[in-house]
Design goal:
This protein is mainly alpha-helical and about 140 residues long. The protein is built from six helices and no strands. Helix 1 crosses helix 5 and helix 3 packs across helix 5. The radius of gyration is 17 Å and the shape is elongated.
């Protein structure tokens, strides 16, 4: 058996699910925009309707479902497979997190990057606090 097989599986699965969460957030935003673009009185109303925070997850709770997939992927494909510490597998902002908290950190980072991306892509001028968007707290977690 290849010694690196569990490591490769962990990295591949986590990366795949992270991309899925990010894509799901964009799709949810697009669906909300399609249904709400004509109704808000102001851009701030539109931002609140389609981004919250928290971001509406009305499409069968797909964001939450995919975030749960990430929790399971990290647990099963990484931690239970003996891959770790995760800080060595996935260096970066979440490297300071304990393995048990790694998935939560990644979910916050995906939410942060989505928020920053949508604010830039849609040229949102109304207040959209990505620091509140990523974890519901003003704690400088989304620079």
């Amino acid at each position: 058996m290849n010694v690196n097989a569990p490591l490769k599986k962990c990295q591949a699965l986590v990366t795949k699910v992270v991309a899925l969460i990010h894509t799901t957030r964009w799709k949810a935003f697009a669906v909300c925009g399609k249904h709400n673009i004509a109704t808000p009185a102001t851009e701030a109303d539109y931002v609140t309707a389609c981004l919250g925070p928290p971001q509406p997850d009305t499409s069968s709770a797909k964001i939450a479902t995919n975030e749960l997939k990430l929790d399971k992927a990290v647990q099963k494909a990484c931690i239970l497979s003996g891959v770790g510490p995760l800080s060595t597998v996935f260096p970066g902002v979440c490297a300071s997190e304990a393995d048990a908290d790694y998935s939560a950190c990644i979910k916050r980072r995906v939410a942060c990057r989505f928020c920053l991306g949508v604010a830039a892509a849609d040229d949102i001028m109304s207040p959209l606090d990505c620091d509140l968007f990523d974890d519901g707290t003003a704690n400088a977690s989304c620079p």
